[in-house]
Amino acid sequence: MNDQGFAADLLIIGAGAIGRGFLPWCFRDSRLTFIDTNPQIIDAMRSRREYRTYLAREGRLEMLRVTVANAFSPADFLESHPRDWAAVFVNVGPRHVAAAGAILRGYPGPVILCENDPATVATLKQVASLDRVYFAVPDVITSNTAPADLLIQDSLSVVTEDGVLYLDSAVGSLSGEFKALSASELLLTQWTAKLFLHNTPHCAAAYLGALANVRFLHEAMAIKQIDNIVSGVMTEMLNSLKLKWEIPHPFLEWYAEKELARFRNPLLCDPISRVAREPLRKLEIDGRLIGAAQVCLASGFIPHNLLLGIASALLFSSEVDADRHLSFMRKALSPATFISHILALRTGEALEVILREQLPLILPRLEQLGREEALRR
User: Fold this and answer.
1) Which residues are paired to 360 by β-bridges?
2) Which backbone phi and psi does 349 adopt, to 5 degrees?
3) 16/145 Cα distance (integer angstroms)
4) CA 76 → CA 127, 133, 155, distances in Å?
5) CA-CA distances (angstroms) from residue 97 to 92, 117, 122, 338?
6) Which residue blocks in the chain are alpha helix, DSSP H?
């Protein structure tokens, strides 16, 4: 306990979905300080010193009032430069982990990355010259917003699922509600399941939902055609994981069923814009779409539903997204050039051939599906 009776002082970099919504439930007895680049969030936290986060459990929402010890912009934090944290949690998105290094350079304690990429551990170690950097897997869906009636009460409100935080046991002593696993178990079991049974169908659902012009993921899953495709993606990944990795099949089956129920849960209000953002990152060669399709092909079958998910990602267009140039590149380049230069697939390899042959047929079908569903709404 510190002088104020808290179990620990924690620094949370990234006051978005995980940082603002989920982690406070895991560390309810800790004093939390936040860093974020959004001035509206930081100003509200500084002036009010508290906000509400809601947890969806058994069909209802539970509320937690989170006390904010302090809140900083990155520049403000560098000026004050405190260092007395029991641990630091980073939840900024894989593309922005390196920027967090400037904030953390010289910090001696554990830094825990709740990012969707284990490679970010090496990135942060290198850019900030840190040794104690660890990967974590938040097995949870957390929105970066809340229903309108809750936002009226508190503009900082977010809704999270009743999930589990898995930490590398090498982090050491830390007081909170989480499960510590060895690094090998964390990566093989929890990260593999999250990458292919959560991230892959999750973003496919979001890109299909974007085509149908819906706002939330559960609205996309309420459309039968989309639910069927996403369920098909889940089956494809489940079958691949059973063939490729020595992970207990009952665990994988439970995980897959749990994920589909999550996607359909209307209490979570999971925005399409949050899940679908940065499509080029989702299309990385070893990632949740292209990489997942390669896993299926290596297992001996063509993932027809996942191909629809990949194609829907190529059709995603948002003027405010960091990858808004994707649609321009797709239209400006020939299919073969786009697949080889943008998706980085070697000419002649199986997935390159399949996409080159199938995309001209799939893309118009998906565009038509989007138009039909948008008209129905």
Assistant:
1) none
2) -70, 160
3) 9
4) 20, 23, 23
5) 6, 10, 10, 28
6) 23-26, 39-48, 74-80, 97-104, 120-128, 148-153, 183-185, 192-193, 200-211, 217-221, 224-244, 249-264, 272-276, 279-282, 290-298, 304-314, 326-332, 335-337, 350-376
CB 35 within 8 A of CB 77: yes
For residue 179, give the amino acid letter: K
Instruction: Give me 329's structure tokens.
Output: 């590149």
Distance (Å, whole) CA 238 – CA 360: 28
Question: Which residue reads 């979905």 in tokens?
Answer: 17
Note the pTM of the prediction, 2 decimals: 0.93
Nearest to 208 by CA among 195, 225, 191: 225
CATH architecture, domain defined by 9-180: 3-Layer(aba) Sandwich (3.40)
Structure tokens at 48: 């009010």
First-to-last C-alpha distance (Å) of the chain: 54
Task: Give pairs for 235-239: CB < 8 Å, separation 24+.
Answer: 235/305, 236/296, 236/301, 236/303, 236/304, 236/305, 236/306, 237/196, 237/197, 237/200, 237/201, 237/292, 237/295, 237/296, 237/303, 237/306, 238/197, 239/296, 239/299, 239/301
Summarised one tens digit per residue, pLDDT across range 235-268 is 999 999 999 999 999 999 999 999 999 999 999 9
Coil/strand/helix, residue 31: strand
Domain boundaries, the chain: 9-180, 186-376
CATH 3.40.50.970 fits 186-376, yes or no: no
- Per residue in 87-117, pLDDT (tens digit) is 999 999 999 999 998 889 889 999 999 999 9
Q: Which residues of 95-109 are buried (b: 16+ CB within 10 A; e: fewer)?
A: eebeebbebbeebeb
